[in-house]
TrEMBL record:
InterPro entries: MFS, MFS_dom, MFS_Na/Anion_cotransporter, MFS_trans_sf. It is a multi-pass membrane protein. It comes from the Eukaryota. It is found in: Membrane. This is Major facilitator superfamily (MFS) profile domain-containing protein. The chain crosses the membrane at residues 25-48, 158-180, 186-205, 250-271, 291-312, 324-344, 350-374, 386-408, 420-437.
Length: 460
């Protein structure tokens, strides 16, 4: 690609200033938000669906509810592993559109499934939704690698990923009011309508990369491509499977992602039940109380992102050390805070404050291991994300199931203490592994052709 004199620019013309890339980033933020709204809506819905004070309720045991809460992940893990390769082959836009379409359709179907086939058919709907959404994170990594200039990567990545917590918070915040106004089916119908609207919006304005966008200016396109070293296009490279699987830094990303997903799924699926059964919070208040921790992590994720970019730009720490510092805040912090929560008195205010502290500190992971995929090998970030997220979600299937086994009496604070202790140990132990073996240094297998060329030169 060539640029004429009138298209020339200075980096300062774009750094930190609005452009079409920010519209694209906002769309990805919304998709991430709605993805996690679809994912988390069942945790509030199942409380209302099993409440015998409601006219249309189901007498499902805690074990059956645990199966429902985990069933989304069964389908989710299946499409995780090929998700990155599919994104690299077909582009992120098509796959994200399929993700939104499948999840919106199944949201409309779920209430009918519950009435026709009970919890078993609800599980089936959730499995299909999970399968449709398994490509979400690999696509996000792939698209961030295409749209985020290096100078803005921490901020853009943090903003997009924070959509997960915003979506969960929004879902929990409005669910109680939707149940009061329309009954529990209102949760699913609202998700379906809003997901369909976002799908239409993304079809019009979304793009796989600056090269394929018809809305972006030539100057801004060239700025992004130059920053990423992709002027003239980006070739499809063969995935270096052997080097990837024998890389300890990559293995450390898998371990870290497993810890994050276990903690997230434990809190996301069980906070409403904990507040309802232990703290005696009503469904409407439950939504607000459950949303507060996620609103907190959404808000505090931005200072983390800006601070990480500042540390890297000022070269106060290396990229690897910066990622490890923020990841330690994101893992050690919640690990110790959950121990405090397990011994807190039965007071709803104290419980919500401690849960909020857990989520605020967890914001560190956005600028920790999560961006490590793009740091290490931007050419294969989507593939790496599919693998790490796939393993993480295989493990997270067991988070609500383990809680169901531990919670012999779901109103007993001692049983809940065991659940929190388990999550705490996973957070702390997995972060220690990441601190020892993790790295954000660009890997030589990021560009297989160059690596092969160096070997040939040595031989010659």
């Amino acid at each position: 690609m060539t640029v004429s004199k009138e298209d020339e620019y200075s980096e300062e013309d774009f750094r930190g200033k609005p452009g079409f890339r920010h519209i694209q980033v906002f769309l990805l933020f919304l998709i991430m938000s709605f993805g996690f709204s679809f994912r988390s809506n069942i945790s509030m819905a199942v409380v209302a669906m099993t409440d015998d004070n409601n006219e249309n309720y189901f007498d499902w045991s805690m074990q059956s509810q645990s199966v429902i809460l985990s069933s989304f992940t069964w389908g989710y893990v299946v499409s995780q592993f090929p998700g990155g390769e599919l994104a690299a082959r077909f582009g992120g836009k098509l796959l994200l559109c399929l993700c939104l379409a499948v999840n919106s359709l199944l949201s409309f179907v779920t209430p009918f499934g519950a009435n026709l086939g009970g919890w078993q058919l609800v599980c089936a709907c959730r499995v299909i939704q999970g399968f449709g959404q398994g490509i979400l994170m690999p696509c996000m990594h792939h698209l961030i690698g295409k749209w985020a200039p290096l100078e803005e990567k921490s901020r853009i990545g943090t903003f997009i990923y924070s959509g997960a917590q915003f979506g969960i918070a929004l879902q929990m915040l409005i669910s109680g009011y939707l149940v009061s106004a329309f009954g529990w089916p209102g949760i699913f119908y609202t998700n379906g309508i809003m997901g369909t609207a976002l799908l239409i919006l993304y079809i019009i304005f979304g793009a796989d990369s600056p090269q394929t966008s018809r809305w972006i200016s030539k100057k801004e396109r060239f700025y992004i491509q130059t920053s990423l070293g992709q002027v003239g296009g980006h070739k499809r490279l063969p995935t270096p499977w052997k080097k990837m699987w024998t890389s300890l830094p990559f293995i450390s990303l898998i371990i870290a992602n497993c810890a994050q997903n276990w903690g997230l799924w434990t809190l996301m699926t069980l906070i409403p039940s904990y507040l309802s059964q232990v703290q005696g919070v009503s469904i409407k208040s439950n939504g607000l109380m459950s949303a507060i921790p996620y609103l907190a992590i959404f808000i505090f994720s931005f200072p983390f992102g800006y601070l990480a970019d500042l540390v890297i730009r000022k070269k106060w720490c290396s990229l690897t050390i910066t990622r490890k510092i923020f990841n330690s805040i994101g893992f050690f912090g919640p690990g110790f805070a959950l121990i405090g929560l397990s011994y807190a008195p039965a007071d709803v205010t104290i419980a919500v404050v401690l849960l909020t502290v857990v989520m605020i500190l967890n914001a560190g992971h956005f600028t920790g291991f999560l961006l490590g995929h793009i740091d290490m090998a931007p050419n294969f970030a989507g593939t790496m994300s599919g693998i790490t997220n796939g393993f993480a979600n295989v493990l997270s299937i067991f988070a609500p199931l383990a809680a169901g086994l531990i919670l012999i009496d779901e109103t007993d604070a001692n049983d809940w203490r065991k659940v929190f202790y388990l999550s705490s140990g996973i957070y702390i132990g997995c972060n220690i592994f990441y601190l020892i073996f993790g790295s954000s240094a660009r890997q030589d297998w990021n560009e297989p052709n160059k690596s092969a060329g160096k070997i040939i030169k040595k031989i010659l």
